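stage 2 :: seqdesign
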């Protein structure tokens, strides 16, 4: 199958809630859902942007051919470069066209909230 999508995606809205309720499986998180419909693996570079400091990254994830990857932003690094409780944005650049969707689970309250939207396809 051909590669559907674009090579550059932007998610201007990012925020990992700093608390959760309920079981660990319902922990608050943000995810980039990346779909690769083509016959080649996609190598996707992720950079984060902040209101008060220089960008962080570059993290590279691989989405195998004809597969999907749900990459949690909080699992990109364990060094605090992906903050919880503060705003950020992200840009994803792939070597082959992919489709990107942004999802947030906010479980700070017992009534959970789920947000999901297709990212901005820049090119």
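stage 2 :: out
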């Amino acid at each position: 199958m051909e590669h559907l999508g674009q090579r550059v995606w932007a998610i201007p809205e990012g925020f990992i809630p700093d608390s959760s309720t309920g079981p660990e499986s319902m922990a608050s998180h943000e995810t980039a859902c990346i779909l690769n419909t083509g016959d080649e693996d996609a190598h996707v570079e992720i950079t984060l942007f902040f209101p008060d400091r220089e960008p962080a990254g570059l993290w590279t994830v691989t989405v195998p051919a004809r597969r999907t990857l749900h990459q949690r932003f909080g699992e990109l690094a364990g060094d605090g470069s992906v903050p919880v409780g503060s705003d950020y944005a992200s840009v994803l650049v792939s070597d082959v066209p992919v489709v990107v969707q942004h999802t947030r689970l906010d479980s700070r309250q017992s009534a959970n909230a789920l947000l999901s939207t297709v990212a901005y396809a820049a090119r």
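stage 3 :: structure notes
- The CA atoms of residues 54 and 96 lie 27 Å apart.
- Strands lie at 6-15, 29-36, 42-49, 56-63, 67-72, 87-106, 113-118, 120-121.
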